[in-house]
Specification:
- The chain is α+β, with helices and mostly antiparallel strands.
- The protein has one domain: Immunoglobulin-like (Sandwich).
- The chain contains five helices and eleven strands; from the N terminus they run H-E-E-H-E-E-E-E-H-H-E-E-E-E-E-H.
- A seven-stranded mixed β-sheet has the order 3-4-2-1-7-10-9. A four-stranded antiparallel β-sheet has the order 5-6-11-8.
- Helix 1 runs antiparallel to helix 2.
- The longest helix is centred in the C-terminal third of the chain and has 19 residues.
C-alpha cells in the first residue's frame, strides 16, 4: 500500500505542475474492514505520463496489482487494480475501523498531497485542471458523509482544483448479516425462505 501512496503522490504532484489530469478511485469496504474491487484510473496527457512513468512503474508491485495503459492520440488512461482484497497500510492517511456497530472510512491521501499555493493565477489554473472522482461502497447504509452524493450504501465525491484538499469521509452501519446490507434486504430474504417452505409443504 505504500507504493499506491507513492503512486497517488506522483500523479498529483506532476499533474499540478503540468495540468490536465483526472483521477478516479473505486473501493468497496467489507464488514471485516478489508477492501475489495479496489481500482485507480488516471486520465492524463503524454507529457505528464513522460514525467512519471519511470518512477511510477518502479514503485509498482506486480504481485498485488494489475496495470494497464490505453492510448488515444495524446491521451492515456492508466488503470491500476488490486488482484485480491487489500488492507490499508497507511494509518496516517487512510483508515477503516469498526466502532460499535459502525464502520468509519477516512482517506486523506489525496488531500495531504494536493495542498499547494493557489494564490497566483497560474497555480490556480493548473490546479483547476486536476480533478478527483471517488466512488465508495460501504457494507451498510451510509449514515454520515461529506460526499457530493449518497445513495444507500454508496457515496461519490467529485472534487476539482483546491477542493481536492477535502478528505474522504463516510460512516456506515454494519449489516445485520455479513455481506447483506439493509433491513429491507433481510426481510426480503426471510420472505423468500418462507415462500419456499410453503411451496415445499404443498
Amino acid at each position: 500500500m505504500k507504493k499506491i501512496a507513492i503512486f497517488a503522490f506522483l500523479i498529483i504532484f506532476f499533474a499540478v505542475i503540468a495540468g490536465c489530469a483526472t483521477l478516479s478511485v473505486y473501493a468497496k469496504v467489507n464488514p471485516d474492514t478489508s477492501i475489495s474491487n479496489y481500482k485507480v484510473t488516471i486520465e492524463t496527457t503524454s507529457m505528464i505520463y513522460g514525467m512519471i512513468s519511470g518512477t511510477l512503474k518502479s514503485n509498482f508491485d506486480e504481485s498485488l496489482y494489475n496495470y494497464d495503459e490505453k492510448w488515444t492520440g495524446d491521451k492515456v488512461i492508466i488503470t491500476v487494480s488490486a488482484k485480491n482484497n487489500i488492507q490499508s497500510l497507511d494509518p496516517a492517511n487512510w483508515t477503516i475501523k469498526k466502532v460499535d456497530n459502525h464502520i468509519i472510512y477516512d482517506d486523506k491521501r489525496f488531500a495531504s498531497k494536493s495542498e499547494i499555493d493557489t494564490s497566483n493565477q497560474y497555480s490556480a489554473a493548473m490546479m483547476n485542471s486536476v480533478s478527483l472522482h471517488y466512488y465508495l461502497e460501504m457494507p451498510g447504509k451510509i449514515t454520515t458523509s461529506n460526499a457530493n452524493k449518497v445513495d444507500g450504501n454508496k457515496a461519490e465525491w467529485h472534487l476539482i482544483g483546491n477542493k481536492m484538499s477535502t478528505p474522504i469521509h463516510a460512516e456506515s452501519e454494519l449489516p445485520l448479516i455479513p455481506f447483506i446490507s439493509g433491513f429491507e434486504t433481510v426481510l426480503a430474504l426471510f420472505g423468500i425462505m418462507g415462500a419456499l417452505f410453503v411451496m415445499k409443504k404443498k
